[in-house]
C-alpha cells in the first residue's frame, strides 16, 4: 500500500515527530493525490503521541492506497511507527 522510511533527527528543539508525504502524479490528479495525503495525515495525527519527537517518517503511497479503507491505512502506519521506536 505504501513505502515508508524512518529517519532519526538530532535537533534538540523538536517537540514532536514529523510526517513527509510524496505522492507521485502517476497515482492520479491533484484531487486524488490530495485525498490520499489527507488520509495519511489524519492517521499520523491519531498516532503521533506514540512516537518520539526525534523521528521523521517519509511515506510514499502506492495506487492501492486509493481503495484502502481508513482503518487499514491507520493499522499499516501504526506498524511503521512501532518499527521506528519510541
Architecture overview:
The protein is an alpha+beta fold and 86 residues long. It has a single domain, classed as 2-Layer Sandwich (Ribosomal Protein S5, domain 2). It contains 2 helices and 3 strands, in the order ββαβα. It has helices at 30-47, 70-84; strands spanning 2-8, 18-21, 55-61. It has a 3-stranded mixed β-sheet with strand order 1-3-2, with helices on one face. α1 (30-47) links the parallel β2 (18-21) and β3. It is globular.
Blueprint of the fold:
Blueprint (H helix, E strand, L loop, with lengths): L1 E7 L9 E4 L8 H18 L7 E7 L8 H15 L2
Parallel strand pairs: 2-3
Antiparallel strand pairs: 1-3
Helix pairs in contact: 1-2
Q: Find the CATH topology.
A: Ribosomal Protein S5, domain 2
Shape verdict: globular
What's the architecture, going by CATH? 2-Layer Sandwich
Placed side by side, the strands forming the largest sheet appear as 1-3-2
Uncertain residue segments: none
Instruction: Please provide the ordered H/E string of secondary-structure elements.
Output: EEHEH
Instruction: Give the biggest beta sheet.
Output: 3 strands, mixed
Portion in beta strands: 15-25%
Label the structural class: alpha+beta
- For the termini, the CA-CA separation is 24 Å
Quaternary assembly: single chain
- The residue-averaged pLDDT reads 91
Based on CA atoms alone, the radius of gyration comes out at 13 Å
Strand segment count: 3
What's the helical proportion of residues?
Answer: 25-40%
Tally of separate helices:
2
User: What number of domains?
Assistant: 1
Name of the CATH first level? Alpha Beta
Amino acid at each position: 500500500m505504501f513505502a515508508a522510511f524512518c529517519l532519526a533527527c538530532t535537533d534538540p528543539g523538536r517537540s514532536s515527530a514529523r510526517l513527509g508525504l510524496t505522492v507521485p502524479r502517476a497515482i492520479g490528479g491533484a484531487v486524488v493525490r490530495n485525498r490520499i495525503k489527507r488520509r495519511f495525515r489524519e492517521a499520523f495525527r491519531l498516532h503521533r503521541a506514540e512516537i518520539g519527537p526525534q523521528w521523521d517518517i517519509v511515506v510514499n503511497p502506492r495506487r492501492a492506497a486509493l481503495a484502502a479503507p481508513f482503518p487499514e491505512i491507520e493499522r499499516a502506519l501504526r506498524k511503521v511507527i512501532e518499527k521506528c521506536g519510541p
